Structure formats: structure tokens, C-alpha cells
Amino acid sequence: MRLFIAINLPPELRRRLWEAAEPLRSAGYPVRWVAPDGIHLTLKFLGEVAPDREPQVVAAIGVAVQGARSFTLPVSGFGVFPSLSRPRVVWAGCEPVPALELLQHRVEQEMERLGFPLEGRAFHPHLTLGRAQREARAGAFRDLGERMDGLAFTGELLVESLDLMESQLARDGARYTRRHAARLAS
Questions:
Q1: What does residue 137 show for φ and ψ, rounded to 5 degrees?
Q2: Do residues 41 and 121 touch, judged by C-beta distance below 8 A?
Q3: What is the pLDDT of residues 73-98, one digit of tens each?
Q4: Is 2 helix (H, G, I), strand (E, B) or coil?
Q5: How far is residue 123's CA from residue 132's CA, in Å, rounded to a whole number?
Q6: 3-state secondary structure 88-157
Q7: What residues act catalytically?
């Protein structure tokens, strides 16, 4: 199973974000856009995990959320990784509030105890909206920055659980299934 740990968005926030990003999708950029129901905040990508290890992962997520309280996460703005001239990922931003950073750090620690490697990059919370196609030429994104500057989006996400998600790759994009939800204290 291909697994990751994420924070899922409520349907209304997903819908609003999807609508706000419409000018980017309709501009014809060589980007494979994420389906609206697939927009989420990844805290840790685990990769291929044997089915018999799932209970260990679920238990470790439970340890990671112990004592954590639900919190509000501001969502706003659009950007890309790594650069506007050669984007690989188009995203909406999430404010790196202390509660989120602590939760992600605890998830990282618990997964390392199970043998999953530590993430080599700093945590930059974001909601992936699309990924540039591999064969995309840099010139295809010439006005992307200007187009993003013209967009506005602000919202808030009440984070009440961490979800263990399964990703099944398909020709038309990944399909995500929630396998377990670990509730935060209210």
C-alpha cells in the first residue's frame, strides 16, 4: 500500500479553493491538476508499506496526536515549487502556525521510530493543486506569476484529526482513501 499522513479539508473549503484556482486551470498550463476531492495537506509521505505494518503506523499516529488540541489553520495565497520559471508543483499556502509545526514534527519522530526516513527538506505546509508535466517547457509558464498575483483566496481550516491515507495511482491521477482518522482533543 502507498500511504501518507495528511490533514483533509472539509468539502466547502475544497470547493472554494477549487473555484479560486479556476483561472490557473483554464489558462492552459501543462499541469496535471489535482481533483477537488484530492486536495489535502500532507504531513508525511510513507511510500510503499506492507499491509501488516498498518497497525504499527496507526498506533504511532495515535502517539503523535496525544495531547494535541484541535487548531485553526489559515489558508491563503498561491505559489509554486521550486521557481516560477520551472515550476514542478502549483500550490495554495498554509500558514505554518506553531500547532501545525509541532504536530508535523511529532509525526516525523514517530514515523522515524518505525524506520521511515526523516524528510530531508524543511516542512513548508501547502495544498498541492497541480504538478507540472515532465515534458513542460519553461516558456509555457511565462505569465504564471502575474496570473497568481491576480488571484485572491483566504480561508480557515479547523484541524480536528490526522488521517492515514492510501494513494492509488491511476492514469487519470491518484485516488485517495482514508484508512484511519486520529482525533485531536477539542
A1: -85, 150
A2: no
A3: 999 999 999 999 889 999 999 999 99
A4: strand
A5: 21
A6: CEEEEEECCCHHHHHHHHHHHHHHHHCCCCCCCCCCCCEEEEEEECCCCCHHHHCCHHHHHHCCCCEEEE
A7: 40, 126
DSSP assignment of 22-77 equals HHHHTTT-SEEEPPGGG-EEEEEEEEE--GGGHHHHHHHHHHHHTT-B-EEEEEEE
Q: Do residues 14 and 170 touch, judged by C-beta distance below 8 A? A: no
Rounded to whole angstroms, how far apart are CA atoms 40 and 9?
6
What are the backbone angles phi and psi of residue 74, rounded to the nearest 5°?
-70, 140
pTM confidence score? 0.93
- Superfamily of domain 2-183 in CATH is Cyclic phosphodiesterase (3.90.1140.10)
Joined grid coordinates for residue 114: 518505525
Q: What was the pLDDT predicted at 6?
A: 98
What cell numbers appear for 168 in the block? 492509488
Q: Is the peptide bond before 82 cis (omega within 30 degrees of 0)?
A: yes
